[in-house]
Each structure stands twice: as C-alpha cells, then as structure tokens.
Amino acid sequence: MNAAPPLPAVQTFGLSRLYGPMTALANLDLTVNQGDLFGFIGSNGAGKTTTLRILATFLAPSAGRAVILGHDVAKDADAVRHVIGYMPDFFGVYKDMEVTEYLDFFGACYRIPSAQREKTVNDVLELVGLTEKKGALIGALSRGMQQRLGLARVLIHDPQLLLLDEPASGLDPRARIEMMEILRELQRLGKTIIISSHILSELESICNRVAIIEKGRLIYAGPVQGVRDQMSSGRVVWVRVSSDPDPAVALLRALPEVTEVAPLDHKIKITLASHDTDHSVIAETLVRGGAKLIELREDEIGLEEVFLRVTRGETQ
Ligand SMILES: Nc1ncnc2c1ncn2[C@@H]1O[C@H](COP(=O)(O)OP(=O)(O)OP(=O)(O)O)[C@@H](O)[C@H]1O
Ligand SMILES: [Mg+2]
Q1: pTM exceeds 0.90, yes or no
Q2: Closest ligand 1 atom to the C-alpha of 17?
Q3: Domain limits of the chain?
Q4: Looking at ligand 1, which residue's alpha carbon is closest to its atom 16?
Q5: Coil, strand, or helix at residue 204?
Q6: Nearest alpha-carbon partner for 196 in 10, 302, 49
Q7: Which CATH entry fits the domain spanning 233-300: 3.30.300.30, 3.30.70.1670, 3.30.200.20, 3.30.70.100?
Q8: What is the C-alpha to C-alpha distance for residues 193 and 183, in angstroms, rounded to an integer?
Q9: What is the CATH number of domain 8-224?
Q10: CA of 89 to the centre of ligand 2 (A)
Q11: Which residues, judged by CB distance below 6 Å to any ligand atom, belong to the binding site of ligand 1?
Q12: pLDDT in tens, 255-271
C-alpha cells in the first residue's frame, strides 16, 4: 500500500479580506506543499502582508478559509500558532535587551522548560550565524543581524512552517545572500517556508514555487520556471548573417514556426509562434538555404520583465 500523500502545509479557499469598501484580498486559492520554499510576490499594496497575517491568525478573513497543516486558522488558532513561526514585516526590537535574554524570553513564552532553553537559544543562534553576538545589546546589532535575530526568534519553538514577511528588505546584497543561505539551510532541515518579497529575482534562485499577486488577486501560482513559460510565447531570436540579408529574411518568413521577421540594421529579429519551438530550425533553414549565419541568440527574458508583464496584465 502506498503511504498517504503528505498534508499540504497551507491551503486557502476563496480567502478574501476587505478594509471598509476596499478589497485587499480577493478569493485567494493557494496551496503550499510541505518542504516548499515558496515565494509570495507582489508589488506594494498587493496583499502579501494581509495574507500572511491571516495565515498567522492575527487577522480574520472577511470570507473564505485557510488550513495550516490540517488546522483551520479561524477555528483552531492555538494549534496553528504552535506550528508556525511568523516574522512580521516590521517588528519591535527590544534595543536594550541582550540577544540571549531576548530569545530566552520568547522561549519562555512558548513554555520551553528553562533547563532546555539555553540549548535551544544556542542552537537557533548557531543556525542564523549570531553565536558571536550572544551577549550583545540588540540596539548595537546591524540591520542584517537584527533581521537574523528576528528569524532566530521565530525558530525558537521549532515550528514546521515559517511565514516570513519581506525578511530581506532593507538589507545590503551581502546580507541578503546570507539570509537566503539561512533559508536554504532551514529548508534542508525540513521546514516549509513562505517568504514574501516585491523583488521577483531575489527569490528566483531559492524558491521552488512562487505565487504572484496583484491588487489582491492571484495571477500566477506554480513553479518558478512556469512564470517564464507562461510569458515566453512570442519568444524572440536574433540572427546575424554575413551574406545579403534579403534571401535570409525570405527563407525565415516561409517558416510556419515564425510569426514575424524584422530586419534591423545588420540583424534580423525573429518572433517565434510558440514557446515550444526549437530554434535550431532557424539555423538549419538559413544554412541549408545558403545564408552565412554568424550569430544566433535568443532573448533571455528575465524574471523582472516577466513580473512586470504579468502584473501589467499582459498574460490575460
Ligand atoms: N489596516 C488597514 N486598513 C485599511 N487598509 C489596509 C490596512 N492594511 C492594509 N490595507 C490595504 O490593503 C491593501 C493590501 O495591503 P498589504 O499590506 O497586504 O500589501 P503588501 O503586499 O504587504 O504591500 P507592501 O509591499 O507595501 O508591504 C493595501 O491597499 C493597503 O492599503
Ligand atoms: Mg507588506
């Protein structure tokens, strides 16, 4: 007999939230699987924080429901709080507290027995790379270190699911990379992680799945690669020939795989009909037709561009 498939870490069903007449979140259906490092992407005001606060049981939805590891966030909030670690976008720091005091305090809040707390605090400090700052005052930590301390705080009760609201915002590139490395390590340790950001490329290299929301609506959910695929019909290939371009243009225009051929300066811009087209057909056609092909290059569509196109509604 096959083992039962793992529970999804998060499922939302028609989740919505209004603020007065304003719809901050509209009918969100989302599934995050256990073990995912899931990117939650949207521009300012898209509804990321609203969603994460609902999942973290701090905000009631206006309609719909959310289930976390089998627990309904509205009906079973206590159980949900035990299995999640929520790092808000802005969190108060206790500037006059020492790093270990701060973590010990939150350990006590989660009723970790005092005999065990020291080890737990040391373990999470090690994980986020702050062991050397154990005795430091929080106010004396850099922004990146404070963010890592925030992460240590949400790890203290060893939650299965981390909800991280823009944990890398305001960090310099090196601190961002360090933060991403910590998240990768946490994923390796078996955590499920949802991380929000308005920077798509920041999450591209670490997330296995992403959701993109805009004005409270889900516009994409799936593998990172899928975002590109969804956008890449109308792929563009550039070629350069050292021979007369006119016969080459005629050959290319005759191809069914090609929707548009535009000679520009010394290059020819070719738009492919489908993202499944293998562009080697272009090289073969040109060479067989006697053209001297000296360059063939496909436009790499960057995730930032994809994101802009998706959020401008160009995929609809
Ligand atoms: N307490 C509130 N009262 C009224 N409107 C709110 C409140 N909180 C959020 N909103 C509105 O809901 C929408 C979604 O906001 P939310 O904070 O969820 O977006 P976000 O994606 O987290 O944006 P950001 O990238 O700026 O953090 C925005 O239009 C915002 O103005
Ligand atoms: Mg936000």
Answers
A1: no
A2: 12
A3: 8-224, 233-300
A4: 47
A5: helix
A6: 49
A7: 3.30.70.100
A8: 8
A9: 3.40.50.300
A10: 6
A11: 19, 22, 24, 42, 44-50, 89, 198
A12: 998 988 999 877 999 98
